[in-house]
Amino acid sequence: MSLKERIDQELKEAMKSGDKIRLNAIRSIRAALLEKEVSIRVGGKGELNEEQELEVLMGLAKRRRDAIEQFTAGNRPDLVETEAAELKVLEEYLPQQLSDEEVEAAIREIIAQTGATSMKEMGKVMGLAMKTLKGKADGGKVQNLVKSLLSA
Fold it and tell me: Which residues form a coiled coil (predicted)?
């Protein structure tokens, strides 16, 4: 079953169950996927591949995390709760996230492969790290780990 079919199926289930937060989250995923599909459409037909779908989902999750951060800073626990619940639904569609230890091990391996020794080579390490860990780890976390490992 493709992601689009899964989203449509779970949208129906959420409507039937009356779970408003899940329904809103799934609707936002569906809308974002349709928007991306329309943007790449050539000759009247456009299909997203798995990588493009993953990009859309990661973008939505990042927006939710940023909103949670800002609502926390603005002392709006009601909105934080809503965004966190929608983020949890979004994460069901993303690949399993790696643990901090697994991410650090992967970054250490990438540093060894590239031979990077200083912060000057951070771009080289980050490029390979983000390609390797795409969808499996948060970019901010990867960046912080790369910085700490290269500056140590």
Answer: none
